[in-house]
């Protein structure tokens, strides 16, 4: 009897596991909203971006037969006449469905000028009978525009016709493929590498400035009497709570040619003619440093606050000079906060968009502004996705190096 | 991938159902345009009269131009905008890519004097099957009478002449207009500008001309920044849409003078986003708001009506400020050219900026 009491009956075990499962389900339910949110707001968009940067189905959807036939072509001379006829027929179908513009825009990316060429030819073919197009496809195309007889144009069509492509990445790295399929430096415009370097260097300067300004302040905040510290903390937090746009436009008012700074300098007799400060990388750096400074101060402050002052006192009482005590005791203890702040500031500033757009002029533009250009103006979403992906990879690489050197576990936000 | 769609499906369906019922309750139309003084004039002369006449609710929103948002809506199959005010450069492209509905010409109203619509509109206004022109506007540059000094610029060459007119020039940061102006100032004839600009040598020539004033250019992004720059002395010559300057001169009494030489005129048109559930209503809206009287209202901001019958209603004192009066001094912006070369020249322009 006694042993039977200690062991649970089958029913009781079942009830127990059911209760456990219910608890698990309940705790899962609490997390589900966050998981769903992260999935829709973060994972899905990034996955789509990665996919878009290599996936390019436009031509295969629009002119599948031509793309198929072009795959056997050697790329040096003109394609076979049958390719022309197939293309002519498919172009006509597109023209009837009013979809030729999509094809035109896609080819135009690899062959500037193709947009009007394709559209004009499509308009001409709309009324022509199919059999005529199939019979004299080549003649009709070259008659519509002599450019159809150029191998470069067909190379462009073939290039754009690949469903999975590395073209966007090559472009993002200022490279391209030539007729022999070799990868070479891009001939038309080389800007992206330069922009990445510039973006990284601006971000680095901002991070260093934030350290230079934020570290002493955080040190003072952590050691000042409570009243003073509270007041100063408000001064740090108030701008942090102020709208980003307000702070950025405030810098426009300060920096512009007849702005506050220039008038003050002139009144003081420091300068004769107004300095050019707005619309330069100087403006980008100074405004972004101002905006990102709290991200440096807050983690530093909370880490410094947690350091036992007796450590430094102990060092001093053992005969260390104050500077050496700071360098060997205090500084290493603040490293987790310092690295957290630096990483935050650096990573946020690499992807910053609005401030450089408003105060940066041309000089202070960063890679995000070019990504926006391709999203909004040139409509080359594939290239924008590739540029964005490279930016993401760059950040991950930096983080990885950082983890190797210092260790991500040492990051402390408070 | 399949998992994603099974997850997405119900969520989308729910969203659509909710949005759908909200729309069904009231007849409403979302109309998008550029805001500013132009948007205000549109509200007074197009939107409000239409709402008063038909009782349709119009949601009037702003955007910054371009095709990106329209493309996103059409591709996702969830149309949020019904009617869009679009520049011809974008119209050409959006129509060819199948992002806009074709607007049948028979919906257009006769002119107030009885002229059939097709004769009443200037040809350029109906050139594209997806659009109906609303205004003729122009990109010009202006100077501030107070800061210019004793000599005043009068030609496009003066904009590029640092010796005669030392000081900053403010231009909108994009390839369009600036490259055309550079060639015009370099002595290329108006009718040849786009032919020359299509060649690598012509492009090099344009950038070389821009090089001569590069150190003195202040770049801005939005038209609204332009009158501001001219007012606070940020630049002595500033590029903008003529209506922006006109508004600053007339309403705020600014001492600005516009230079019409080399002006690049263009049209703005109504387009209807492809696949809108409110197609009939949208067509009715376009028809009403492109009537003689509605279009004549744009004289408020000195944009020219593309209807001949509307011109008759324009105040004589405004006529001098309308782009249509200065067509001979200017050049028509070529939407087809920019559909071809917009992207490649845009990249080259960015490269040139970074140099």
Question: What's the short story on this structure?
Answer:
The complex is a heterodimer of chains A (414) and B (355). Chain A has helices at 2-6, 10-54, 58-62, 64-70, 81-96, 100-110, 114-125, 130-135, 137-144, 151-160, 167-172, 192-223, 226-241, 244-255, 260-267, 281-305, 309-317, 322-350, 354-359, 367-376, 381-405; strands at 175-177, 183-185. Chain A is an all-alpha fold and 414 residues long.
Gyration radius of chain A, rounded: 31 Å
Main sheet: strand order of chain A: 1-2
Largest sheet features of chain B: 9 strands, mixed
Termini separation of chain A comes to: 57 Å
In terms of DSSP E residues, the strand content of chain B is: 15-25%
Number of helices of chain A: 21
What coarse outline of chain B follows from CA principal-axis ratios?
globular
Task: Determine the most extensive contact between two protein chains.
Answer: A-B, 42 and 37 residues
Total strand segments of chain A: 2
Question: What is the helix/strand order of chain A?
Answer: HHHHHHHHHHHEEHHHHHHHHHH
**Overall pLDDT metric of chain A:** 89
Number of helices of chain B: 16
- Measured as a percent range, the helix fraction of chain B is 40-55%
């Amino acid at each position: 009897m006694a042993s039977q009491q200690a062991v649970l009956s089958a029913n009781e075990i079942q009830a127990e596991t059911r209760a456990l499962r219910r608890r698990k389900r309940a705790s899962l339910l609490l997390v589900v909203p966050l998981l769903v949110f992260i999935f829709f707001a973060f994972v899905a968009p990034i996955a789509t971006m990665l996919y878009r940067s290599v996936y390019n189905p436009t031509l295969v959807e629009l002119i599948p037969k031509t793309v198929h036939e072009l795959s056997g072509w050697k790329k040096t001379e003109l394609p076979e006449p049958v390719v022309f006829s197939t293309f002519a027929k498919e172009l006509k179908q597109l023209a009837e469905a009013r979809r030729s513009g999509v094809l035109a825009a896609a080819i135009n990316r690899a062959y500037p000028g193709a947009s009007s060429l394709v559209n004009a030819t499509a308009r001409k073919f709309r009324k022509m009978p199919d059999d005529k197009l199939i019979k004299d496809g080549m003649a009709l195309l070259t008659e519509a525009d002599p450019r159809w007889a150029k191998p470069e144009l067909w190379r462009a069509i073939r290039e754009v016709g690949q469903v999975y492509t590395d073209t966007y990445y090559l472009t993002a790295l200022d490279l391209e493929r030539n007729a022999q399929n070799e990868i070479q430096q891009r001939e038309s415009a080389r800007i992206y590498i330069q922009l990445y370097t510039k973006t990284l260097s601006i971000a680095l300067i901002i991070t260093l400035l934030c350290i230079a300004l934020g570290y002493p302040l955080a040190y003072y905040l952590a050691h000042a009497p409570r009243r003073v510290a509270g007041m100063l903390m408000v001064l740090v937090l108030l701008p942090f709570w102020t709208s980003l746009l307000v702070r950025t436009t405030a810098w426009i008012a300060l920096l512009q040619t007849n702005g506050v700074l220039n008038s003050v300098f002139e009144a003081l007799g420091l300068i004769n003619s107004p300095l050019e400060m707005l619309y330069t990388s100087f403006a980008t750096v100074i405004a972004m440093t101002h905006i990102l400074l709290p991200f440096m101060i807050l983690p530093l402050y909370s880490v410094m606050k947690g350091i036992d002052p007796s450590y430094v006192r102990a060092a001093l009482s053992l005969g260390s000079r104050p500077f050496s005590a700071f360098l060997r005791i205090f500084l290493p203890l603040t490293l987790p906060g310092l690295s957290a702040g630096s990483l935050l500031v650096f990573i946020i500033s690499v992807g910053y968009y609005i401030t450089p757009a408003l105060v940066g002029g041309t000089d202070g533009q960063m890679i995000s502004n070019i990504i926006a250009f391709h999203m909004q103006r040139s409509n080359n979403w594939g290239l924008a996705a590739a540029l964005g992906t490279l930016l993401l990879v760059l950040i991950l690489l930096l983080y990885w190096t950082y983890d190797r050197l210092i260790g991500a576990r040492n990051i402390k936000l408070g | 991938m399949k998992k994603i769609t099974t997850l997405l499906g119900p969520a989308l369906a729910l969203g659509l159902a909710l949005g759908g019922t909200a729309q069904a309750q009231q007849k409403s139309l979302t109309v998008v345009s550029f805001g500013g003084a132009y948007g205000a004039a549109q509200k007074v002369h197009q939107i409000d009269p239409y709402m008063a006449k038909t009782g349709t609710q119009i949601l009037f929103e702003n955007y910054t131009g371009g095709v990106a948002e329209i493309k996103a809506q059409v591709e996702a199959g969830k149309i949020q905008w019904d009617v869009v005010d679009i520049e011809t450069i974008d119209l050409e492209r959006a129509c060819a890519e199948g992002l806009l509905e074709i607007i049948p010409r028979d919906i257009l109203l006769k002119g107030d004097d009885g002229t059939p619509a097709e004769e009443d509109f200037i040809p350029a206004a109906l050139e594209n099957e997806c659009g109906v022109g609303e205004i003729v506007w122009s990109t010009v540059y202006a100077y501030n009478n107070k800061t210019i000094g004793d000599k005043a610029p009068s030609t496009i060459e003066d904009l590029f002449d640092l010796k005669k007119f030392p000081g900053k020039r403010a231009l909108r940061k994009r390839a369009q207009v600036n490259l055309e102006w550079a060639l015009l100032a370099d002595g290329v004839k108006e009718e040849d500008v786009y032919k020359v600009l299509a060649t690598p040598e012509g492009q090099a020539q344009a950038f070389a001309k821009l090089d001569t004033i590069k150190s003195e250019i202040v770049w801005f992004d939005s038209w609204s920044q332009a009158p501001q720059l001219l007012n606070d002395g940020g630049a002595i010559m500033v590029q903008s849409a003529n209506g922006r300057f006109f508004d600053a001169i007339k309403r705020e009494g600014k001492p600005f003078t516009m230079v019409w030489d080399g002006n690049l005129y263009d049209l703005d048109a109504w387009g209807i986003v492809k696949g809108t559930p409110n197609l009939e209503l949208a067509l009715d809206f376009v028809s009403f708001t492109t009537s003689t009287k509605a279009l004549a209202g744009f004289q408020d901001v000195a944009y020219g009506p593309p209807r001949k019958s509307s011109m008759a209603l324009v105040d004589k004192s405004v006529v001098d400020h309308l782009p249509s009066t200065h067509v001979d001094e200017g050049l028509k912006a070529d939407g087809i050219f920019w559909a071809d070369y917009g992207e490649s020249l845009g990249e080259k322009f960015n490269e040139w900026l970074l140099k």
